[in-house]
Amino acid sequence: MRLGINIDHIAYLRETRKINDPDPLEAIFIAKRSGASQITIHLREDRRHIHDSDISRIIESSFLPINIECSSAKDIVDFICTKKPHRITLVPEKRNEVTTEGGLLLHEGMLPILERFCSNEIEVSLFVDPCDKSIEKSIEISHQLGTKIGVELHTGKYANISLMLSSNLPHTHHSIKEFETSRSALHTRLVQEIHNIESSAKLAFNEGLNVYAGHGLNYFNVAEIVKIKEIEELNIGQSIIARSIFIGLEQAIRDMIGLIQ
Ligand code: PXP
């Protein structure tokens, strides 16, 4: 299983002072040295962290493949097609969300956009909720495009339930309202969510899609996801960058790779 490092949070820190420190570009060299397989960055419509110039500099300098998460906004698609990253991951985007909240609602209207990426030799991945319907639609899209695509299974719900169950989060002001329920009910939902991720991964894999997963994964919850052998890659950001504040980025990445392996 490969590890893609999402470095948006480094750019977030830079934006708190609107200066050029820390520079997310530096992270790509550390990620390579630490054994990561990919750099993942999200070019958001509001450019709240990664900017167009970061994309240009990172693509020009990286020895690792670059995976750009993006919405289907025309100016973003136009820009990315000129930059030709290794892969794009299409994600839903809402202006006021703190992070990508749910998977894509897949529809025919996306085809021309995805065809543009394919004709620019950019691999396509769709960020979807782990459910049969999303996978079946992704398979259909792959057939319509006439090319193998990837699905990245959204592990955010699994991660949130797991946090509410195993940490003191419910007793803090960060408690997640949606999951404020009894421990036994949370446990049932956790088992159900792991089942959803596993069965979606198997369905997608058996139909020839590349299967990835990510969102909210950390040093405590990654083990359950690693057990699903159809998933070939994880994209992880927040937990690794958070840990790097205390122990350094190189060690934080190596620790995560140790758990994945
Ligand atoms: N994968 C996708 C598609 C995402 O949108 C994100 C968040 O930007 C991640 C993975 C990484 O999530 P996290 O920062 O919670 O590890």
TrEMBL record:
Assigned EC number: 2.6.99.2
Reaction equations catalysed: 3-amino-2-oxopropyl phosphate + 1-deoxy-D-xylulose 5-phosphate = pyridoxine 5'-phosphate + phosphate + 2 H2O + H(+)
Residues annotated as binding 1-deoxy-D-xylulose 5-phosphate: D8, H9, R44, H49, T99
Domain of life of the native organism: Bacteria
Pathway: Cofactor biosynthesis; pyridoxine 5'-phosphate biosynthesis; pyridoxine 5'-phosphate from D-erythrose 4-phosphate: step 5/5
Pfam families linked: PdxJ (PF03740)
Gene Ontology BP annotations: pyridoxine biosynthetic process
Keywords associated with the record: Cytoplasm, Pyridoxine biosynthesis, Transferase
GO cellular component terms, semicolon-separated: cytosol
Positions contributing to 3-amino-2-oxopropyl phosphate binding: N6, R17, G216, G237, Q238
Coiled coil: none
Subcellular location: Cytoplasm
GO molecular function: pyridoxine 5'-phosphate synthase activity
Function per UniProt: Catalyzes the complicated ring closure reaction between the two acyclic compounds 1-deoxy-D-xylulose-5-phosphate (DXP) and 3-amino-2-oxopropyl phosphate (1-amino-acetone-3-phosphate or AAP) to form pyridoxine 5'-phosphate (PNP) and inorganic phosphate.
UniProt-listed NCBIfam families: pdxJ, PRK05265.1-3, PRK05265.1-5
Similarity comment: Belongs to the PNP synthase family.
Subunit and interaction comment: Homooctamer; tetramer of dimers.
Name of protein: Pyridoxine 5'-phosphate synthase
Species assigned in the record: Helicobacter didelphidarum
Gene from which this protein is expressed: pdxJ
